[in-house]
Amino acid sequence: MTFLRRDRSKEPGNEKRQAHSPHAERKTAGAKTVFSQCSMLFALCILANAIPLHADDVFSISGRLDLHGVYAIDPDSVKEDPSLTARMQLDAQKSQWRVHSWIEGGWDGTVRSPRRDHSILKSFDEVYQDNTPYLEFKELYVERSLASLDLRVGIQRFSWGRLDEYPVNDLFNPWDYTQFIVRPIEERKIGVPSISATMGRMDWTYQLVWVPWLVPYRLPKPNERWSVISAGTALSNIPDAEVILQEPDLPSRTLGNGSAGFRIQRMGEIEWAVNLFHGYDPRPVFKTTALRVMESQAGLVIDPGFVPSFHKITSIGLDGAAVKGDWSLRGEAAYTLSRAFDIRQELWGYPDVLVPGVTPLNPVEIERDTIDYGIAADYRLIEDCMLTLQAQQTVIVDRPATLFEREIETILLANLRVQWMNQKIETNLNLAYNPEHGASMVRPSMYYVFNDSWKAGIIGLLLDGPPQSIFGRYAKNDQIEMVMVYSW
Fold first, then answer.
1. How far apart, in whole angstroms, are the C-alpha atoms of residue 442 and residue 412?
2. β pairing state of 385-396 and 306-308
3. What DSSP assignment string belongs to 56-74?
4. Where does 169-311 show beta strands of DSSP type E?
5. Measured on CA atoms in the order 237, 238, 241, 245, is the torsion positive or negative?
6. Could you tell me the pLDDT band of residue 56, with boundaries at 50, 70 and 90?
7. Has residue 16 got a pLDDT over 70?
8. What is the DSSP string of 400-442?
9. Are 213 and 258 in contact (CB under 8 A)?
10. Interatomic CA distance for residues 159 and 209, integer angstroms
11. How far is CA 318 from CA 168, 175, 282, 315, in A?
12. What does each C-alpha distance from 237 to 219, 305, 425 come to in angstroms?
C-alpha cells in the first residue's frame, strides 16, 4: 500500500474542518472502569480483613524494578523514551482463604502523545490506551480452598497449553501488543475479571473458568513504535497529518457475551489435558468503514477507517508433556471454529492519493476454521546450559486467495540459555523464523548478576521480513536495549 502525495488540486479554497474527538466519551468510560476496579480492590480487602486469624497465617510481598533504555538502530524508526516498570506481588493467607495481587506500574516510554484527560489506571474497555504514568492490576483475586476444591474470584491470568510464546489453547487472556516481542508472554497477558473453580481427584484435575464480559486486547497507535497495522503507520508518516483512531463498540456486558472454558488434566509420567473454550478470540483482527480526510489549521486530520473487531470462536484442544532423562517434550493442538482473519492490506481500498473527503473501504474480514499444532523439546546440554526447540503450524481450512497468510503458516523457535562464572553471567539467544514469508527474529541478551537483588544487561533485537509478516511489520525496529533490574 502506497500513499504517493497529498493532492492539493482538489482541495477547497478556504474550508476548514474539525475532526470529532472521542475524548469525552472515553473519559466517562474510563472513570467508570477506575471506579469498578477500585471497588473490587476495596471489597477484596474488606473480605480479607474479615477472615478470622489462625496460627498458620502467612503474609508475603515481593517486587521488582526495571529501568529500560532503548537505542533505535534504524534512523527512520519511531523513537522511544526510557521506561521504568515496577511490579509488586502480595499474598495474604488466612486459614483456607488467600488474597493475591500482582500490581504493575511505571512510565511507558513507547507512548508518544498521551491524552491530557487520561487516567493513571489502565481500563478494561479500551483498545488504545496511552497511560503514562500508569497502574495496572495484572492479578487481584480472593481464593477459597476446600477439601478438594479451589474457588477464585477476581482479576486472573490463566496458562492453558504447553508451547512457548504462542500457545494455541491459551485463549482467556488478551495480550498487550504495545510492546509486543520485547516482553515475555506472561507480561503481555492482561488479567481479566473472572470466576474459576479447580477440583482435584486422585491424578485428575478439573478446571472451569468463566469470564463474564469481553476485555479487549491493547494496541499501540500508528505513530508509536510497535504499531501492528502498516496502513495506519503509512498514514501517520504523511507530513502535517494527524491520525485519529476510533475506539470500537464493545459487546454489551450481558451473560451471553462472556467466555467460558473447561479443562480436564491427567497427571502421571505423561501429563495430558483436554481443553474446551467458547468465547471471544483474543487475537487482533479489524473491520473497515470509510477513510475520512479532513482539513484543520495544522494540516490534515485522518480517520483511517479501521477499528478492532471481536469474534466468538469455539476451540477444542489437547496438550501434553513428558520428561525422559535430560529431555522434556511438550506439545499441543487445537481445532478452532470460525476464527476471523483480515485480507491483504493492499485490498482494503485505500487510494494512492489523499484528498479531503470520504472514501468507502472494502470489507476485510473472513472467517475460517483452523487447525493449530506444535511440539517443543527442552534439553540440558551441560550444567547451566538449556536448549529449547519448538515448531508450530496453523492450517487454514478452505483458505481464500485474498489472505496474506498461507494455507499452512509455520513458526520455528530456538532458544539457548547459558549461565557462566558460577551463574554470575546469564546469556540467552532467541531465534524465530517464519519460512512461508522469510520473516525472522534474532534476540541475543547478556546479564551480569551483581548479587541477589541487582543485575544489569544488554539486549539486541533484529527483525526482518515482508511488511505484513509477523516479524517484518517491525523491520524498522531493530534496537539495542540497556536494562537495570532490582528485585526483592
1. 12
2. unpaired
3. T-EEEEEEEEEEEEEEESS
4. 192-201, 204-211, 241-243, 259-266, 270-280, 286-288, 290-296, 299-303, 306-308
5. negative
6. low
7. no
8. -TTBSS-SEEEEEEEEEEEEETTTTEEEEEEEEEETTTTEEEE
9. yes
10. 12
11. 10, 22, 19, 10
12. 18, 16, 41
- Compute the C-alpha angle 436/395/321, nearest 5°: 100
Measured CA to CA in angstroms, residue 216 lies from 21, 87, 310 at distances of 21, 22, 8
Give the whole-angstrom CA distance, residue 97 versus residue 48: 8
Contact 322, 276 (CB under 8 A): no
3-class DSSP state of 281 = coil
Report the distance separating Cα 405 and Cα 398, nearest Å.
Answer: 12
Q: Which three cell numbers stand for residue 368?
A: 475460517
Please report where in the chains the cell 472467517 appears, as a residue: 367
H-helix or E-strand spanning residue 96: none
Query: What's the rounded Cα separation, in Å, for the pair 138 and 126?
Result: 16
Angle CA 338–343–344, to nearest 5: 150
Would you give the DSSP letter of residue 34?
H
Q: Transcribe 243-259 into DSSP letters.
A: E-PPPP-PPPSSGGG-E
Q: How far apart are CA 126 and CA 220, in angstroms?
A: 11
Residue 361 sits in a domain whose CATH number is: 2.40.160.10
Backbone φ/ψ region at 9: left (φ over 0), alpha (ψ -120 to 50), beta: alpha
Total tally of structural domains belonging to the chain: 1
Q: Answer whether the bond into residue 351 is a cis peptide, omega within 30°.
A: no
Kindly tell me the number of DSSP H helices and DSSP E strands found in the chain: 3, 26
For 58, list phi and psi in degrees, rounded to 5.
Answer: -135, 135
Lowest mean pLDDT among 31-35, 206-210, 430-434: 31-35
pLDDT at 149: 95
Helix (H) or strand (E) holding 82, with range, is none
Domain carrying residue 351: 5-487
Kind of pairing between the strands at 425-434 and 439-449: antiparallel
Q: Grid coordinates standing for 144?
A: 477459597
Confidence of residue 233 (pLDDT cuts 50, 70, 90): low
Determine the residue type at 177.
Answer: Y
The CA distance from 38 to 61, in Å, is 20
Rounded to 5°, angle at Cα 178 from 226 and 330: 100
Residue recorded with cell 528485585: 487
Residue 444 exposed, middle or buried by CB count within 10 Å (0-12, 13-18, 19+): middle
Query: In this structure, what C-alpha cell is assigned to residue 242?
Result: 494527524
Rounded Cα gap, residues 95 and 87, in angstroms? 26
* H/E stretch holding 457: strand 454-464
Q: Which three cell numbers stand for residue 472?
A: 517484518
Residue 289: the pLDDT is: 92
Q: What value does the mean pLDDT of the chain take?
A: 87
Q: Are 29 and 125 in contact (CB under 8 A)?
A: yes
